């Protein structure tokens, strides 16, 4: 069953996120639970899960962004796509992505974007099979506060 995450899904979503980023620190101060609750409350932020036999086996995070171009149609960014390692390759990833893309379409989005840091051909093949075009845009990422590859320190300057 594809559905929006609820308050009771926190542990299941975090279990999947630990598969996505196993090196992330585990928060013990409750800050992660508060961010989870904030996401659930925020308009335009939609966290989805896919359940099989009562167990959450996949998750996606859809960010709906208001826009003044394209006839004021919003656009969306998908983040944190995870399918439980035990069931990868069974078609569940395509199911949760189909639901997530339908939610973006239902919200009137004129485009949906995502980025992946993966260099695995299977990951890129998966996104292409879901309808994404890897050649449509070029993405750039900066992590504010970190030294860039060019050696620029301090604040981001353009």
From TrEMBL:
Give one GO term, molecular function aspect. acyltransferase activity, transferring groups other than amino-acyl groups
Q: Which residues form a coiled coil?
A: none
Task: Indicate what this protein is called per its UniProt record.
Answer: L-amino acid N-acyltransferase YncA
Please name one Pfam family that this protein belongs to. Answer: Acetyltransf_1
**Which SUPFAM superfamilies does this one have?**
Acyl-CoA N-acyltransferases (Nat)
Q: The N-acetyltransferase domain covers which part of the protein?
A: 1-158
Q: Which UniProt keywords apply?
A: Acyltransferase, Transferase
């Amino acid at each position: 069953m594809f559905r929006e995450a609820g308050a009771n899904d926190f542990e299941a979503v975090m279990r999947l996120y630990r598969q996505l980023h196993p090196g992330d620190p585990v928060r013990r101060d409750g800050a992660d639970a508060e961010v989870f609750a904030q996401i659930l409350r925020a308009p335009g932020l939609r966290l989805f899960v896919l359940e099989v036999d009562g167990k959450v086996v996949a998750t996606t995070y859809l960010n709906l962004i208001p826009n003044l171009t394209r006839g004021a149609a919003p656009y969306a960014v998908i983040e944190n796509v995870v399918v439980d390692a035990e069931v990868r390759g069974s078609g569940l990833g395509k199911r949760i992505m189909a639901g997530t893309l339908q939610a973006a379409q239902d919200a009137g989005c004129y485009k949906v974007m995502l980025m992946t840091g993966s260099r695995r051909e299977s990951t890129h093949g998966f996104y292409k099979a879901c309808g994404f075009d890897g050649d449509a845009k070029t993405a750039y990422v900066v992590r504010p506060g970190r030294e860039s590859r060019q050696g620029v320190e301090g604040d981001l300057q353009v």
